[in-house]
Amino acid sequence: MDLPTFTQDDFHVFDIDGLEPRMEAIREKIQPKFKALGEPLAEQLSDLTGNDMFLHIAKHARRKTNPPSDTWLAVAHNNRGYKKHPHFQVGLFDDHLFIWLAYIYELPNKKEIAQLLLDNQDQLEKLPNHYAVSLDHTKKNARTLEAMDSEELQKSLVRFRDVKKGEFLIGQQIPHDDPVLGDGDKLFATIMDTFSHVQSFYDKTTQWHI
User: Fold this and answer.
1) Domain edges within the chain
2) In whole angstroms, what is the distance from residue 9 CA to residue 29 CA?
3) pLDDT tens, position by position, 186-203
4) In the predicted model, what is the mean pLDDT of residues 65-74?
5) How far apart are CA 40 and CA 51, in angstroms?
6) CATH architecture assignment, domain 8-205
7) CB–CB of 172/99 below 8 Å?
């Protein structure tokens, strides 16, 4: 399997000014890699979860003026969309690649999912301590579990539950200069290892969606 790698040139697409010039670079440089990476990821995630999983590549179609500061692929059990479902993400900001199990604000059962995660907070805390938590998929800032105590993690989950635009994403951020990004096999293995670590939470929180 010929798996893609990510180079500094890929991250530099976010230096391009203007919506259409940046989108053209994303379509030409990044999206073919997302397709080459996402198709085998969807196959592996279908095996891992026991459900058919489908690849979605962000089109940024709602944007009219501002160019995207990140771009991503998503894998979800629904073939028509992913934002209203728990889903897996891999994507790029200008300085890192992210690997997330993502629960974003469009989830119709957000309160129930957040409460289930709160009820299983002790299991979240057993994830590798370099794993990170993001509370907004549009922002780069995230906190590692190592840097968060139980109270802060609980507050993050409560915010996800109680704030309309609240989100919760958990996984890894890999710096743009990490050598693993230059080895397709190692990168794929790292992504699947991350998804395997968070799979139990995905399984628990898809009861409203399968």
Assistant:
1) 8-205
2) 9
3) 999 999 999 999 999 999
4) 94
5) 15
6) 2-Layer Sandwich (3.30)
7) yes
